[in-house]
DNA sequence: CGCATGATGCACT
DNA sequence: GTGCATCATGCGT
């Protein structure tokens, strides 16, 4: 998981990351949901150009971009090509479950890392991680354990760029922030 | 289960 | 002053 992995379009990286393991100080699991944001994307923090907050997005690929969301949550992004990044939205928790439960308070395992804010809280992410290299401690990566099924859908929690299918996920995973949207009636197999 | 709403900080205009 | 790349809770069905 060197810098060349991240030096590609964010959507490419976001899809490729599904199924990889991610640990922060030994705590984490398997990535099951991501979103891509890039320079041409009105929903992206980088859309209006470099600012103090998004400085990491315009730095070298393979670093973390951390920002505060709605005043109370932290969100962890992985910087890709200049001005683009992948938002980590959900992880299947496998390592350091006790630590995650302690950080999040009593919680079902299903909800430990189901959502960008929850994920960041469970992994102990805050502003001190902004700009850190992803190829060294506290970050550690693992290759997918087997074949991975990836679905692409539209993104969540944004008001612009709503139609771009840059949310990537494992369709059947119970650890998603939200399940795969149901297909329109009549548009798919009967059932 | 679904929708509505309050919490709460800061970058940006 | 405004608007969020969110989460937990409360109420109605």
From TrEMBL:
Keyword match DNA-binding: no
Keyword DNA damage applies: yes
The record's annotation in CDD domains points to: AAG
Query: Which EC class heads this enzyme's classification?
Result: hydrolase
Q: Where are the transmembrane segments?
A: none
Which is a Pfam family this sequence falls into?
A: Pur_DNA_glyco
Q: Which superkingdom, per the lineage?
A: Bacteria
EC number per UniProt: 3.2.2.-
Q: Check the record and name the Gene3D superfamilies matching this protein.
A: Methylpurine-DNA glycosylase (MPG)
List the InterPro entries: Formyl_transferase-like_C_sf, MPG, MPG_sf
Keywords in alphabetical order:
DNA damage, DNA repair, Glycosidase, Hydrolase
Spell out the molecular function terms from Gene Ontology. Answer: hydrolase activity, acting on glycosyl bonds
Q: Which family does it belong to?
A: Belongs to the DNA glycosylase MPG family.
Show the PANTHER family listed in the entry.
DNA-3-METHYLADENINE GLYCOSYLASE (PTHR10429)
Q: Protein name, please?
A: Putative 3-methyladenine DNA glycosylase
* Organism whose genome encodes this protein: Methylorubrum rhodesianum
